[in-house]
Design a protein that fits this description.
With 365 residues, this protein is of the alpha+beta class. It is built from 14 helices and 15 strands.
Length: 365
């Protein structure tokens, strides 16, 4: 398949509007259940048989269509989120439901709860006041639940039993990053000081637990954990969150300075100089562990370049846009992941990827 040509962020946004969004309001949407299928085939036309539907995936779709201000579709997703995934007995959100909409994986997952908050912060911009207030209430209710029932030392557990009686997994980087993202969005939507306070506490505890002093990188597990690793895409994602928000919580935690060092560290070790492809994982010394290139990490690289404090780095953005488009976008959709030499690793198109593209493209100049 010939590579597509992109030279501007506007061209990326056009591909998103003309190709990607229509998948998820059309063939990628199960109208009978009111949920997006987890994936469609690489042709962008064939839903893959569902085994489950995840609450996180529903929340990401809710965010995507709220950001696009397609309020009717967003309202359907908001109703489905509450109908299928809310645990009315124990509180919080089930991880997934089965193909018929019955609870399947019932554990309580911080990543999922963070995305519910994030999606509600965007859906709260709904022009209908009742819908907006419902979203705001759900956003705060979920935040309080995390604080009261998922607390783990100064941070939060990544996963807990259905009734919150026992920790399954302790604090890990990625759910906490997305909780930070969610509380940033909630703070921007409400201007409620409670979210700034939450971010202050979270950033301070996070920095001391996860940021490696030698490289500035954010590790995936708490420092000192066996077989720890670094994901270049997450360094770019964190740099964007810190730089774009300019939230004082991150400055007070010393994250700004660390993340610029992390940016340089992973660019040297984890970005292919010929293609701009971002490797999946490194060890803490910078050695490559997994050279697979996933589209979400490429999109995070774009917005990290766009928001970098140095003009010479920002000037690299047009070149990387062209590389990204040629390597990862297709006429019917995109390439989810590939090897460094261009062999497809994952051919299908997951419903969750639209969130990565939407958030990246929305912030590019």
């Amino acid at each position: 398949m010939p590579a597509l040509t992109f030279t501007t962020a506007s061209a990326l946004r056009s591909h998103y509007q003309d190709v990607i969004l229509p998948i998820w309001r059309g063939v990628g949407f199960n109208k009978a259940l009111g949920l997006a299928y987890e994936s469609v085939a690489a042709d962008g036309m064939t839903p893959l048989p569902p085994v489950r539907y995840r609450a996180m995936a529903c929340a990401r779709q809710l965010f995507v269509f709220s950001l696009a201000q397609e309020w009717q579709h967003a309202a359907t997703l908001f109703a489905s989120l509450r109908h299928y995934f809310a645990d009315r007995q124990h509180g919080g959100w089930f991880y997934s439901v089965d193909a018929d909409g019955a609870p399947k994986e019932r554990q309580k997952d911080l990543y999922t709860h963070a995305f519910v908050i994030f999606a509600c912060a965007e859906y709260a911009k709904h022009p209908n006041a009742v819908q907006a207030q419902q979203a705001l209430a759900l956003m705060e209710e979920t935040s309080v639940l995390i604080e009261q029932r998922m607390v783990d030392g100064a941070l939060f557990s990544s996963a807990m039993e259905e009734d919150f009686s026992r920790r399954i997994t302790g604090p890990t980087q990625n759910p906490l990053m997305h909780l930070s993202e969610a509380w940033l969005a909630a703070d921007a939507t409400t201007s409620d000081g409670i979210f700034a306070h939450r971010l202050d506490k979270l950033a301070s505890a996070f920095a001391s637990t996860f940021i490696d002093g030698a490289s500035g990188c954010v590790a995936e597990l708490p420092l000192g954990s066996e077989n720890n690793w670094v994901e270049p895409g997450h360094q770019f994602e964190w740099l964007f969150l810190v730089e774009s928000s300019q939230h004082p919580a991150f400055e007070r935690a010393g994250m700004n300075r660390a993340l610029y060092r992390a940016f340089d560290f992973v660019r040297r070790s984890g970005v292919d100089t010929a293609t701009g492809g971002v490797a999946a994982t490194l060890d803490l010394s910078g050695a490559l562990l997994d050279t697979t290139q996933r589209i979400w990490a490429q999109s995070e690289y774009l917005r990290a370049l766009a928001h970098h404090g140095e003009a010479t780095v920002r000037a690299e953005l047009p070149t990387q846009i062209a590389r990204f488009g040629a390597r990862f976008l297709t006429a019917p959709g995109w390439v989810e992941s590939q090897t460094a030499d261009g062999k497809i690793v994952r051919a299908e198109l997951p419903s969750t990827t639209a969130y990565h593209l939407a958030t990246a493209y929305a912030t590019l100049p």
